[in-house]
Every structure is written in C-alpha cells, then in structure tokens.
Amino acid sequence: MGDRRITVCRELTKKYEEAYQTTFQEALAFYETREPKGECAIVIEGRDPGDVKKEEIETWEQMSLEEHMEQYLSQGQDKKEAMKSVAKDRGISKRDVYRRLLTD
Fold first, then answer.
1. Which residues contact 11 (CB under 8 A, 6 or more apart)?
2. Which of 53, 76, 86, 99 ranks highest by number of CB atoms within 10 Å?
3. How far is CA 52 from each of CA 22, 25, 69, 70, 96, rounded to the nearest angstrom?
4. 90: exposed, middle or buried (C-beta count within 10 Å: 0-12, 13-18, 19+)?
5. Nearest to 73 by CA among 96, 103, 104, 101
6. How sure is the predictor about 104, in pLDDT bands with cuts at 50, 70 and 90?
C-alpha cells in the first residue's frame, strides 16, 4: 500500500475522542514503542487516480494486442466490444486495433 497518509482515530464518539494524521511508517514507529489504548479506527488515503491509470497503461504495454484482446474476450465481451475496450485502454482507434490484429 506504500507509505500513504492515514488518520488514526481513537475512542470515536466518546469524551476523549482523538484523531491524528500521520503516515503508515510514522504510525508503525510510534506504536512499536507504545501500546495502543482504547478502540482505534484507521482511515487510509486512497490511491492517486493518475498512479492507478499509469499502472494500468504499463500493464497493457507489456501485453501483446492479442493478449489484451483475449483478456476482454475471456470476460465475455464479443470481438467488437473487446476491440473497443482495447482501443480505449491504449488510446488508439478501433480501426488501428483491427488493422494491427490482421497484420500480426
């Protein structure tokens, strides 16, 4: 999950409620020397959408066009829909997908 930001909330809805923002690493270091007291909830920062998209693109670039198509076909899409999905994922036209599949 990386060293995302988190908020550690302690004793929610009670008189001595606390919340502090930190990171995973800082929280681990803190709790290695201190025993947690009370009930805690941890709120974890979501992943950056740009990072998620970048990882997806890297995954698609490692696949051949045929493997990428097969991924969608195995999920139950027909050929036309699979080509649309591949084109959208790779940022190319459906026509380019079709041509490259015919020539490879």
1. 17, 18, 38, 39
2. 86
3. 22, 22, 21, 22, 25
4. middle
5. 101
6. low
Question: Quick one: tokens of 71?
Answer: 């991924």
pLDDT in tens, 18-36: 999 999 999 999 999 998 8
pTM exceeding 0.70: no
